[in-house]
Specification:
Elements lengths: L1 H27 L6 H8 L3 H8 L2 H21 L9 H16 L8 H9 L5 H26 L9 H13 L1 H6 L6 H13 L6
Helix pairs in contact: 1-4, 2-3, 4-5, 4-7, 5-10, 6-7, 7-8, 8-10
Length: 203
């Protein structure tokens, strides 16, 4: 039992470090996340933090993984049980917009932040972000194709273009809220998504 409790405590410590890293990265960027800064924030020794991850890059990669899991849990999981086609696609858009507007980090959507930080770079962190976003794009594309297959969207719908449009609207939420102080971003983004999908905004 002691071993199990110790393993659980270590897992909780690791999760706390990653949450602190994600919060810091959302405001100052992933490059700002260092072992020393996290140790100070959490009241831990540097050895205690680095013992969890071994390197800054490993810490950054696991922070990206945490955020990708957040997106999957809060955006996709609540709607995956719905019928494929427009009902699930519209519900997905709604949960995506809610997440982008309130992701739980002071600096807004961290996935958007790290994408802009690393899109022009090379390396392991860039690759992890690209892989995660590619999986998300594929999820969207499958639901768009399903909506076409059941007749909810017209034949010939350009799924990659629709994905691009939905992503662009979601990505615009954080700067609109935090930089410009717009307080209707959720409504605007969802109306825009509905327009792209060719359905009434109240659908």
């Amino acid at each position: 039992m002691a071993g199990r409790a110790s393993a659980q405590a270590a897992l909780e410590t690791r999760r706390s470090v990653l949450r602190a890293a994600a919060e810091l990265a959302s405001v100052e960027g992933l490059d700002s996340v260092t072992i020393g800064r996290l140790a100070d924030r959490l009241g831990m020794s540097k050895a205690g933090v680095i013992g969890q991850f071994r390197s800054k890059e490993k810490l950054q990669l696991e922070t990206v993984d945490l955020v990708l899991e957040d997106v999957r849990t809060r955006v996709w999981q609540p709607v995956r049980h719905l019928d494929a086609g427009l009902p699930r696609l519209l519900a997905l858009c709604a949960s995506w917009v809610r997440y982008a507007a309130d992701p739980g980090y002071s600096g807004g959507c961290l996935l958007t932040q790290v994408t802009y930080d690393y899109d022009g770079r090379t390396g392991a962190v860039h690759d992890r972000i690209a892989e995660g976003r590619a999986r998300w794009r594929e999820t969207l594309r499958r639901d768009i194709d399903a909506a076409v297959a059941v007749g909810d969207l017209p034949p010939g719908t350009d799924a990659p273009q629709v994905v691009y449009g939905l992503e662009s609207l979601a990505a615009g939420i954080t700067p609109a809220r935090l930089l410009h102080g717009d307080d209707r971003t959720e409504d605007w983004a969802l109306r825009g998504m509905h327009a792209i999908l060719g359905v009434p905004s109240a659908a």
